[in-house]
């Protein structure tokens, strides 16, 4: 752990700037001392064991967050703030000095442990949460409670019979502050560089209303239910889970802090489920419940943040790998075609046959790389569409003719037609048809025909691709449009594919406000259909 800099004043980076850094440092110390004193005195007003130890001790969380974000050199504010709080509460100067030493060491040790373990202020990994919950917070608060209670005992401010309850309240109050307030301040220390969409704003509004209703109902309303001991506290977990899963660590910390505020007010007023016994007993059980709630929400949010980060890195890897593979593959395709032209008409049929196989495989690999590129663009919302007039009759026949050349076994038949045209991206609509027909060929190895049906109305046109192959089980039909999903079975190991073609087709059809669906019977074949509105 690096303690260098705890005793140093901030150094100016600009030559000749004079006393401005020292003045700024002094103002920061005074501001932090004032905040520390006000929040500490507020906690003691809510009830303090032996006159000093309170279960609502906000300064611990504020102190650790301040040292973590702005440096160890702010420690004098913690010492002075604790000294003033306890002196104002009636402690002697010597006792106040002892308690201030304990609180200062708590903040320094907790911050040093967090920094030593390279905890991110975003708290977006399980490692960060476990370091805070299992190492930094318990160890540092233990130090503060031991030194603080010892100072009170040695100074004559408490008696031996109240040592256990005073120490428990001191330790639990500081621990809850580190588990609730510190994560809130750290995760919100930088404003998120994300613009919320309209749908996300609606979701956030609904979540806020849901939390307000649950908070009032559980902690402020229906006191007759609370007196009967009905277990209604579990109602806080659905909105907490929603906030953690959808809005990450910031959403989780904001949610359980809001519930904590409701809970404290309701418990003090005697309206919450924790309203039996003295105020100290009520707050003790409440804080225990809120500690478990906070840890649960933090762990869930961190795991979801890790999963999102992993998905993002995977998409970036796919995008980079696809771009890097495209250049050498284009070169190989060019040289293969050059060799085919040079050997055309020669008496080397085996070489020409090998080159034809090479070109076929290169085309297949190019199509896979193109799909990967499109998939990465879809994930970041950068897939571009060129709006043009498209004749679906002509497009279907062109794609069918191209794929007919790659399959000797299957006969591709086209039935029906579509009257008129639609507005869309010809290339991407052709990609949808290519993926559907290619899958029909791939997954009907024992069949001899594939049927493409075209129908239309005044508002929609529909294209269906029917094969007579292996079919898809009913339990897996809705999953085939997910990324990288492939139907389980013996054909999964013997049939090439990445499981992204149908996902891309689904995204393209959805872009045009259309619909893509499947009808399949296992062992008899499948029919993939999509409909597009006329625009």
Please trace the helix and strand order, writing H or E for each element: HEEHHHHHHHHHHEHEEHEEHHEE
Instruction: Report the strand count.
Output: 9
Structural class based on helices, strands and sheet pairing? alpha+beta
Helix content: 55-70%
**What Rg do the Cα atoms give?**
34 Å
Main β-sheet, spatial strand arrangement: 4-6-7-9-8
Mean pLDDT: 82
Question: Quaternary status of these chains?
Answer: single chain
Measure the end-to-end span: 65 Å
Per DSSP, the total helix count is 15
Instruction: Specify the biggest β-sheet.
Output: 5 strands, mixed
Q: Unreliable segments (pLDDT under 50, ≥5 consecutive)? A: 1-17, 223-229
Shape: elongated
Q: Tell me the fraction of residues in β-strands, as a range.
A: 5-15%
Explain the overall architecture.
With 535 residues, the protein is α+β, with helices and mostly antiparallel strands. The chain has helices spanning 20-45, 59-70, 75-88, 93-116, 126-154, 163-187, 198-220, 223-227, 237-269, 279-343, 349-379, 392-404, 426-442, 490-494, 501-511; strands at 48-49, 53-54, 388-390, 411-416, 422-424, 449-456, 460-466, 515-521, 525-533. The longest helix has 65 residues, at 279-343. Strand 8 and strand 9 form a beta hairpin. The protein contains 15 helices and nine strands. The strands form three sheets. It has a five-stranded mixed β-sheet. The protein has a two-stranded antiparallel sheet with strand order 1-2. The two termini are 65 Å apart. The chain is elongated, with a radius of gyration of 34 Å.
């Amino acid at each position: 752990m690096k303690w260098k800099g705890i005793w140093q004043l901030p150094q100016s980076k600009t030559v000749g700037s004079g006393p401005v850094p020292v003045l700024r440092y002094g103002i920061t110390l005074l501001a932090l001392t004032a905040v520390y004193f006000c929040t500490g005195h507020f906690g003691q007003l809510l009830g303090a064991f032996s006159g000093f130890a309170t279960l609502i001790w906000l300064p611990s969380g504020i102190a650790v967050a301040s040292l973590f974000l702005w440096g160890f050199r702010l420690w004098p504010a913690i010492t002075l703030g604790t000294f003033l709080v306890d002196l104002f509460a009636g402690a002697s100067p010597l006792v106040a000095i002892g308690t201030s030493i304990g609180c200062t060491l708590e903040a320094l040790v907790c911050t040093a442990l967090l920094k030593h373990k390279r905890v991110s202020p975003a708290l977006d990994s399980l490692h960060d949460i476990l370091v805070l919950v299992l190492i930094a917070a318990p160890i540092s608060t233990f130090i503060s409670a031991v030194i603080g209670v010892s100072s009170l005992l040695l100074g004559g401010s408490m008696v031996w019979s109240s040592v256990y309850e005073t120490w428990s309240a001191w330790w639990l109050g500081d621990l809850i502050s580190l588990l609730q307030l510190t994560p809130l301040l750290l995760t919100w220390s930088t404003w998120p560089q994300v613009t919320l969409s309209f749908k996300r704003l609606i979701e956030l509004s609904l979540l806020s209303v849901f939390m307000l209703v649950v908070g009032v109902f559980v902690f402020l309303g229906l006191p007759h239910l609370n007196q009967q001991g009905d277990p209604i506290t579990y109602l806080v977990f659905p909105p907490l889970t929603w906030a953690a899963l959808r809005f990450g660590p910031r959403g989780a910390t904001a949610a359980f802090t809001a519930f904590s505020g409701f809970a404290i007010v309701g418990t003090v007023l005697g309206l919450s489920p924790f309203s039996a016994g003295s105020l100290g007993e009520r707050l003790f059980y409440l804080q225990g419940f809120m500690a478990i709630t906070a840890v649960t929400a933090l762990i869930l949010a961190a795991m979801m943040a890790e999963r999102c980060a992993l998905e993002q890195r995977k998409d970036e890897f796919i995008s980079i790998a696809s771009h890097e593979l495209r250049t050498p593959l284009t070169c190989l395709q060019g040289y293969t075609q050059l060799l085919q032209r040079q050997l055309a008409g020669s008496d080397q049929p085996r070489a020409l046959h090998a080159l034809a196989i090479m070109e076929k495989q290169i085309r297949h690999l190019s199509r896979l790389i193109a799909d990967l590129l499109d998939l990465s663009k879809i994930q970041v919302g950068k897939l571009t569409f060129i709006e043009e007039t498209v004749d679906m009759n002509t497009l279907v026949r062109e794609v069918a003719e191209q794929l007919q050349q790659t399959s000797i076994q299957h006969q591709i038949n086209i039935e029906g037609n579509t009257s008129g045209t639609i507005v869309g991206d010809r290339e991407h609509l052709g990609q949808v048809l290519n993926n559907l027909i290619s899958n029909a060929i791939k997954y009907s190895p024992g069949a001899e025909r594939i049927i493409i049906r075209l129908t239309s109305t005044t508002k929609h046109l529909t294209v269906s691709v029917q094969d007579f192959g292996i079919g898809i089980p009913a339990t897996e039909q809705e999953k085939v449009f997910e990324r990288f999903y492939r139907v389980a079975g013996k054909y999964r190991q013997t049939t090439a594919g990445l499981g992204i073609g149908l996902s891309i087709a689904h995204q393209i059809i959805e872009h045009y406000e259309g619909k893509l669906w499947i009808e399949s019977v296992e062992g008899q074949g499948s029919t993939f259909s999509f409909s597009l509105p006329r625009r």
